[in-house]
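Standup notes
- HV: blocked on the assembly model, inputs below
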Amino acid sequence: MRAPLVGMRSAPWILLSPFIGVFVVFFAYPIVQSAILSLQQTFGPAHTTFVGTANYQNAIADPLFRKAVRNTLLYTAGGVFIQLPLALLLAMLLNRPGLRGRGFLRAVFFAPVLVGVVFVGMIFGVMFEKRTGLINQSLHSIMGWDLDFPWLQNFVIPSLIIASLWQYVGINMVYFLSALQNVRQELLEAATIDGAGSWDRFLHIVVPQIRSVATFVILLSIVGSFQVFELPYVLLNGTAGPDNRGLTVVMYLYQMGFDQGDLGYASAIGWLLAVILIGFALIQRRLASDSSRRARA
Amino acid sequence: MAYFQRTSASTHHQRRSASSVSSGVSIGVAAIAILAAVSSIVVASFPVRPPTGVQMWTFARLHKQLYDPLIANWPAQSRPQITLMSMPALERRMLQGFLAESPTADLIEAERRVAARAFVGPLESVGFVDLTDRLKSEGLLDTINAPSFGPWSSRGRIFGLPHDVHPVMLGYRADIVEAAGIDVTTIETWDDFVRVFAPLMKDVNTDGTRKRYLLNLWADKDDLLELLLLQAGGGFFGEDDRVCIATPINARVISTIVSWCHGPGRIAADAPDFTASGNQLKSDGYVLAAFMPDWMCNIWKNEIPSLAGKVKLMPLHAWERGGRRTSVWGGTMLGISRASTNQDELWKIAKQLYISPELARSLYSTADIVTPIRTFWSDPVFDQPDPYFANQSKGRDYLNLAPDVPARTSSPYNTLAKLRVQTAALSLAAYAESSRRYRPEELEERAMVLLKEAESQVQTQINRNVFLKQTQPEPLNSEGLGS
């Protein structure tokens, strides 16, 4: 009998080594390096100065960073409180039994997801133009809307929410639709027999059964919204818009890191963004576990 | 039954996996491995050939088109190989070269904002060669229009050869203005302009909105804000690049701009440059006058051909009688990379390219840009009538204004300052609308408060830069240069 080439003890490490190698090089090292960088000020590799927590202190006191956080929160709120209810509504409409052309409608609502964000930004940039843009022109002909209505000057975040609504409502609708199709029909039928109205059926039978998917979609939406960069970048021609009204956290990070060359400050912003997202994830996890505990009770 | 089917399928899958393992690797994995190996060998077999000869980067297609015929007959060893790349690509690669010492071009054409990125750190770390002594010893400081050095000078040293002057005039719809019997030569100040041109705004649409406005301007246009502030003698930075935003001149200018854009005295509207919609509005006569640096003439010719023969240029109107009649917008330089070994040879090539009468001529005849080399200003090409501008000799008009172009900063914080002043202007506009105060003198006090905030924010960012603090600026002489 031949002796094994490798011992039983080292075999798992050998099998894991490709993953560990990739993880260390592409994940662990950059994370540690960015944490170190966030405590430094640099001008290329040749000039590096340790500044302690000054980058973090400056970011927290920086009115532009606060503005970026506020804008991003508004955009996120638009995603969660407008886009997701609309996606759920569309999913419920498409889930109605006997609806004709369901596949076609599903494809129509889903199609914008297939369009690249850059194209969406360019298309909406033209549509939101003052005087000549499709939106102001259409509203003007329908209701005498001001042709000079400054969408991309004074209403940047609402414009971003509208553009992202068009693009992402379809994908969230698909998530909700799949959840709705798994709602147990016998419970709905039993509730109907017991005299429950449609609102009661939705609230007490549908919502509890789609809660896990809804929680997942909300978290996904929050994380995605906090990372928004391409859409405002293209929509506002690479700027943050007048008075930085379209400045988002990631855009500010990009501006500081790549336009200003202040990589230490940009790293600190990145870490603050990570802290915010971890906070949201913990809150969401807490709420989800509370509600499932209540449901079990 | 279902359980049985799942178990059966699982067993089948395990058997298939086992057979794959026992026979080595699957076909898919083998194919990927072979492809990876073959492609690696192919890539490795092509040796990396470092570029030979003098390398030059530019971001402007038009510049490359102008340079290529000029250098075609140069000796091979001094003929630069010009690579065209987008501005962001040039910026990234230039900074990588300067900061991380990765390969970079020998000669780099950089626009004002991009060049300023090189001036963030210590003076000895600026990636461009210091040209001050060469310019002085060869008498080029007198040959080249003095204000054109501003954006390429940091802490009293000059790091680039200027490509242009970019004086600004006011383009106006001569067909409409002359039909109304207005003689623009009688206008000297902005107040005169508003008074004389006001009758042209009387036409209204059926919904009561005005059919046209006098000026293409809005409070969110940071380039135009800077242009008007510089014209008035204001700006963002004073001597030694000290922040100087909260000044009475700046407060007066942004108050006036807000009064032009809002309220009963509104004369300005937004017809954005470089957009189809903005071009259409200009073509429709929605705005009668627009700020036009020399390079903008070429943009209009290409993008709004419908206005050929209908547009003329006049000097900007002064903020007070006898005041400056021009400003400046944009700018490009040619710098030599400090990492290059043959700097003397590169200096000769840079001069041969930039200080050439042929380039000056083709720069104007092709791109409408006037040269900063004063000795070429007598060239008759600048006196040629331009049919697009109703046969006006606009080259001569721009050159007459060139010596009076305001000096500019090279501060890497200029972009930040521009954004902060834009914010102040927009906040002032919101204040005007909410308080129903639209006259400049009613807004100036509030403008000063907002400008102080802007100044403080810019100063805070500058104070964070430990590298700038390490380098004290040299005392400047009358030319704005160090010893």
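- HV (later): unblocked. The mean pLDDT of chain B is 89. The first helix of chain B runs from residue 2 to 22.
- Next: hand off to the docking folks.
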